[in-house]
């Protein structure tokens, strides 16, 4: 499938049609074609300019003031936070048919007419499965968090010219 996307991308390059990645922001004016026209649908050209502030040095305060309302570009691939781990993990666990079956057995065993075993004994398999899978998910998410932290703190080189 990846090879197909590569071939399609290369074919578009050869035909002169690009996939929308050619946004042009020169100070002299707008480009000849807008990104919408490159795909065949005309769009209005935005005549506004953007101001780019240096992030370090004498313009640090100006940068912080201008970028308050915008998101950063830090990578976050972890599923959970400390507050959302238990509710989201339980929600995902009970989407599995086996866990729903064990929950049904636990609830059914709390009805006095149908009670086959002691109430607590029927809860043991469900609790063991939920705890083991919860620990596994927590460890996986923590590894994702550490990797994201490592990637976000990488030192990079910026080439100008």
TrEMBL record:
<protein>
    <recommendedName>
        <fullName>P-type ATPase N-terminal domain-containing protein</fullName>
    </recommendedName>
</protein>
<feature type="domain" description="P-type ATPase N-terminal">
    <location>
        <begin position="63"/>
        <end position="122"/>
    </location>
</feature>
<keyword id="KW-0472">Membrane</keyword>
<keyword id="KW-1133">Transmembrane helix</keyword>
<dbReference type="InterPro" id="IPR023298">
    <property type="entry name" value="ATPase_P-typ_TM_dom_sf"/>
</dbReference>
<dbReference type="InterPro" id="IPR032631">
    <property type="entry name" value="P-type_ATPase_N"/>
</dbReference>
<feature type="transmembrane region" description="Helical">
    <location>
        <begin position="98"/>
        <end position="117"/>
    </location>
</feature>
<dbReference type="Pfam" id="PF16209">
    <property type="entry name" value="PhoLip_ATPase_N"/>
</dbReference>
<feature type="region of interest" description="Disordered">
    <location>
        <begin position="18"/>
        <end position="45"/>
    </location>
</feature>
<dbReference type="GO" id="GO:0140326">
    <property type="term" value="F:ATPase-coupled intramembrane lipid transporter activity"/>
</dbReference>
<dbReference type="GO" id="GO:0005886">
    <property type="term" value="C:plasma membrane"/>
</dbReference>
<dbReference type="GO" id="GO:0045332">
    <property type="term" value="P:phospholipid translocation"/>
</dbReference>
<keyword id="KW-0812">Transmembrane</keyword>
<feature type="transmembrane region" description="Helical">
    <location>
        <begin position="123"/>
        <end position="139"/>
    </location>
</feature>
